Amino acid sequence: MANATMEEFEALLNESLEMDTPDEGSVVKGKVIAIEAGQAIIDVGYKMEGRVELKEFAEPGEAPKVEVGDEVEVYLRAAENARGEAVISREMARREEAWDRLEKAYADDARVEGAIFGRVKGGFTVDLGGAVAFLPGSQVDVRPVRDAGPLMGLKQPFQILKMDRRRGNIVVSRRAILEESRAEQRAEVIGKLGEGDSVEGVVKNITEYGAFVDLGGVDGLLHVTDMAWRRVNHPSEILTIGETVKVQVIKINKDTHRISLGMKQLQEDPWDLVGAKYPLGSVHKGRVTNITDYGAFVELEAGVEGLVHVSEMSWTKKNVHPGKIVSTSQEVDVMVLEIDGSKRRVSLGLKQTMRNPWEQFAESYPEGTQVEGEVKNITEFGLFIGLEGDIDGMVHLSDLSWDERGEDAIQNYRKGDMVQAVVSEVDIEKERISLSIKALGGDKFADAVGGVKRGSIVTVEVTAIEDGGIEVEYEGMKSFIRRSDLSRDRAEQRPERFNTGDKIDVRVTNIDSKTRRLGLSIKAREIAEEKEAVEQYGSSDSGASLGDILGAALKGDE
């Protein structure tokens, strides 16, 4: 009996030694035989049992799913520990299994399922059914995500970008999946849209240059210039995020899948009626919407704007920035000067709604009228005087004084002086007013020689005796008679034979209005008298002497 028992034991021992026991570091199948103290006791066969923490059977964010009798795969780390139990791991078995599965998916460029379960520097950790992958922050969504909380623990597809089994590195992307599905969705939506279609959309985002409108999975750009016929400074004036708007598809780019939208295209174009509503020369009220260096834009009605060029803003303020004449939002009266329907341009005038100040001045101050004003500027050719209506008049050097040279006379004036002058000419077209200061007291020369003609005999008074002749005065006007004109007789051409205060008759030989001088001669008077005597009393061939004739003439006078 004892021998038989020994034989049986030996046979059993040999049998156990011959059994093909699994290698440490491999994945083996086992059966859950009990669950106690938060652990599952698993029989892996070969008379080996091991313990696995229940949490190793749980998916991220879920409760453990394991029951007695379940068949599971575990990783055999060691055949026996100090307690005689096998050292096994469900997690490591899952990881090995996952790596095999993921490598195949990576090779096939297939999507894999996983769940984001943690946050790390630069991104997140993702459980891909046993293997942990890194999800960079830039690969979470198409647009930057501020709060990834709602995405945590959700089972969702990912694309493997890179994997290295030796180092245990896997990099995945959620964005690639979204972009792919968006592209499919975009293609589907775009396929249903046509240029000119009217559709409804939701304002998703507002920028400086326009708004992005979601048309049901695809975004279109509504540019600021296509929002309204009127000028829109910023899209937020018209739209708010989340608002539903009706838009028209203006253009679809089939290559880039970009969609251009418009809102104003669904409204009536105010330019269709501009020609009839705003005839040339008509005056209208408008609002200043924008001011530039070259002029100001004035809105006549919503969608119809015109430009008042800087040259049409003021009669008098020529080199001034438009912002000094008008301000934004100001209401102004403007005149329609030109309409170009094809270019959608209206040229307006501001100054045309006010009277031309040169016309007004000419009416109020005709030529010869006396005016008063302040010396605004002094130049090398004259004075500029500020006049009524914010306009200037000019006094030329030659109009400053009768007696002084202009260059000398201008020295008597300073900027800011109040002066009086006479209006000598108003040129409305050239916007010029000519003034004269010297004409204030009238023209003494013109008054003095008013009735005098060339050849007239006038009486003058000797005011000075000089070597070259004598200075005389006629009606307050000074003249000079040269020595050669003092007498017909050479012996009598002596200045010293005259005295200051003498009154003498002279003949007017010349009247020069420019130099304001009278040409006078005693000699010419004597010759004229002789000629007259000859004509009256005889001829040169009658034989009568000049003395006879003059004697007879003198007797006749007596």
From TrEMBL:
Residues 25-91, 109-175, 196-264, 281-351, 368-438, 455-523 form the S1 motif domain. Pfam families: S1. GO terms for molecular function: mRNA binding; structural constituent of ribosome. The keyword Protein transport does not apply. One of its GO terms (biological process) is translation. Keywords: Repeat, Ribonucleoprotein, Ribosomal protein, RNA-binding. GO terms for cellular component: cytosolic small ribosomal subunit. Belongs to the bacterial ribosomal protein bS1 family. Binds mRNA; thus facilitating recognition of the initiation point. It is needed to translate mRNA with a short Shine-Dalgarno (SD) purine-rich sequence. This is 30S ribosomal protein S1. It comes from Pelagimonas phthalicica. The gene is rpsA.
